[in-house]
Design a protein that fits this description.
3 domains, about 25% strand, Rossmann fold, globular
Length: about 450
């Protein structure tokens, strides 16, 4: 836990008692503050009371004595309209913050030189965050991994000069962190997302840019118009910016050329790392993640040799292009996180010959946008509610079978791939669909795939 000592003796309102909200309240209490907590869920309120917290309706408080309202990032701050607690706080002139902001303030108060690497972007931020943390762990450093990736930031050990915090930040979290100031920030990309919470693309991009603007060193992808403009603006304002790209050579920055990561300065390129043979970092999207991780780790003190060694041992994230087994030459890859066609495209672009398991609860547009990858698909195995829609799209273009379930699809695909005679056939689960027709979430779907692969591989 990171006790919030910088607010000792103050009273704060906390709304939202999920994982991060409860951790925030306990961290405030441990640091000597008085959190008054509430949630729309009666069960969560009772859980908080059972942990010794003061739970009472926030609309009954005397707000004149409240130092701040701490909101859970899942609670709307501005759109589609501010939550009632946000309206109440603003009406009393009380600032509204989140747990990332509390961490940033505590770090400034107790260990301002503590390494703090914060990562954001519309796509790729979880893999990049996990990769950066792995690089430091592999180099023998004390590293704390958390934020939007799963572990609440205030559940982590406190900041110290010898401890590296690697934190994934969503736009919701950044919106609640007005003074966030990481030593290194990574902004991977900005594409349309979360407009229901931010209103416009301009507002969404500005929130992402705020993370980079507060950093000592800003690592910024320049492969989309939004981030390219952000990098140019930050540099013109005097910020230290390191650009990254997988689409073009940069005179200054870090870019990928095939499987080689290149660092350039003053127009002079220097190969600094290789992704050859690293299955967990296949594909152009992972090359961008690796470039960002290299730039961030370098800025925070790791050597190219340490970074290369760490990349070689990176296992990848569960359910994201995760290699889960082999049977002879056949490689089984779990990409259950691919819940739409755009996400599935990244996996389909990463392999040459695939036996593709797809389907689930379909998204608008289906898989028509993936037609350019159809020549690489030897056969498709359709599951779930999308079966007939996907069959109509594939008809005459890709051989397919209605497999029904993941277990049946894996058995059929493994047999076909093993008999194909190909050098490295890939059985790929990249559903391009939500999971909710057969599973509670994509994690459960991915675990079902892994179990089916284990059953097949165990037959050898």
């Amino acid at each position: 836990m990171t006790p919030i000592t910088s607010l000792a003796g103050r009273t704060l309102a906390v709304f939202g008692l999920g994982g991060s909200g409860l951790a925030t309240a306990l961290a405030l209490q441990a640091g000597g503050a008085r959190p008054i907590v509430w949630d729309d869920s009666a069960a969560k309120v009772e859980e908080a009371r059972g942990r010794g917290l003061d739970a009472q309706p926030l609309d009954k408080l005397d707000w004149s004595g409240i130092a701040a309202l701490v909101l859970s990032p899942g609670v709307p701050l501005t759109h589609p309209e501010p939550h009632w607690t946000a309206k109440l706080a603003r009406s009393h002139g009380v600032e509204i913050v989140g747990d990332i902001e509390l961490f940033a303030r505590e770090r400034r108060a107790v260990a301002p030189e503590a390494p703090f690497i914060a990562i954001t972007g519309t796509n790729g931020k979880s893999t990049t965050t996990a990769l950066i943390a792995h690089l430091f762990a592999a180099a023998g450093r004390d590293v704390q991994l958390g934020g939007n990736i799963g572990t609440a930031i205030l559940s982590l050990e406190p900041p110290s000069p010898a401890r590296v915090h690697v934190i994934e930040c969503s736009s919701f979290q950044i919106d609640l962190a007005p003074t966030i100031d990481p030593s290194v920030a990574v902004l991977l990309n900005v594409t349309e997302d979360h407009l229901d919470r931010h209103g416009t693309m301009e507002a969404y991009a500005a929130i992402k840019a705020r993370l980079a603007a507060g950093a000592r060193t800003a690592i910024v992808g320049v492969d989309d118009d939004w981030t390219r403009a952000i990098a140019d603006r930050l540099e013109s304002e005097g910020h230290r910016v390191v650009r990254i790209s997988v689409l073009r050579r940069l005179p200054d920055g870090v870019y990928a050329e095939g499987e080689t990561i290149v660092r350039a300065k003053g127009g002079v390129p220097e190969p600094v790392a290789s992704l050859a043979g690293i299955g967990s970092l296949r594909g152009a999207h992972n090359a961008q993640n690796a470039c960002a991780a290299f730039a961030a780790a370098s800025a925070a003190g790791l050597s190219p040799a340490e970074i290369q060694a760490g990349m070689a041992s990176f296992p990848g994230l569960a359910h994201r292009m995760q290699q889960v087994g082999r049977r002879g030459p056949v490689l089984f890859v779990n990409d259950s996180k691919a819940t739409n066609a755009d996400a599935a495209a990244k996996a389909l672009a990463s392999f040459d010959t695939m036996f593709w398991i797809a389907g689930g609860k379909p998204k608008t547009g289906g898989i028509a946008a993936l037609e350019g990858f159809f020549p690489k698909i030897v056969k498709a195995y359709l599951i779930g509610a999308a079966t007939e829609e996907f069959a109509a799209t594939l008809e005459g273009k890709v051989p397919f079978v209605r497999a029904g379930t993941i277990a049946n699809a894996v058995e059929l695909a493994a047999a076909d791939a093993g008999a194909s005679g190909l050098a490295e056939p890939v059985v790929l689960l990249s559903p391009a669909c939500a999971s909710f027709d057969q599973f509670r979430n994509f994690e459960e779907r991915g675990k079902a795939f892994e179990a089916a692969v284990k059953a097949v591989v165990g037959e050898e």
